[in-house]
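Researcher: Structure prediction, please.
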Amino acid sequence: MRTDVSYNLSSEKTPIILLHGWGMNKTIWSEVIKLLPQNIQARIRCLDLPGYGDNRLELEDYNLAALTSWLASEVDKPSIVIGWSLGGLLAQNLAFCFPEKVIKFGLIASSPKFMKSDTWPGIKSDVLTLFLNQLSKDHVKTVERFLAIQAMGSESARKDITALKNVVLNVELPSQIALQEGLRILQDVDLTEQLSQLTCPVFALFGKLDSLVPIAVEQEVKKINPNIQTSCFDKSSHAPFISDTAKFNAWLIKNIEE
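Model: Predicted structure follows.
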């Protein structure tokens, strides 16, 4: 199943794969791609995760291992894999489990561990538990509430929320299983030890105003793996490619071409 937004199979350059976050779909990248140089556009693949957008694949077990195996089957040759939020966990796990598939990978507002603990900055456990409980009652409103949290803090929060909603509501809604088990992945997965063992290049972008992946995560990941190249947007929250697309694209091009 091909789920590309754009991809030039004849390109001799390294493919770039973009992965969306929880509740979203591949069209989240549309505005970003429009503003990129054509030679980079030609290298990009934007994938819908199973259960999202056009990808109605039903996994036997919807967990990080199964998602990683699915992604590995989609990667035809060594690529630069970049994941936003939940997609970042998937990009990291692909690099660890299938190192031959990943030349380098990028994290956008993502973390190897999303849940807050005594030693790790993150989301309070009761927040995701609340979303899990609400999903069974009204998953549309649950996704909309989550989108509002993603934009919280951004100077363009209202515009960002509208843009995020348009991405969700203009295509078929994500499956209940994808939403439910995606939240469980965010709740349960801890790839911090794995991150310390990775040897491929890693670049990461954080938003100083992000309420889901606190800016303190930036320093924590650098402690785990000092080779990670990190950047921070002072006026962005959880969706820096929406709140500051031009600046995001400059960051993206820089890290792709290095």
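Model: The CA atoms of residues 209 and 226 lie 23 Å apart.
Researcher: Thanks, that helps.
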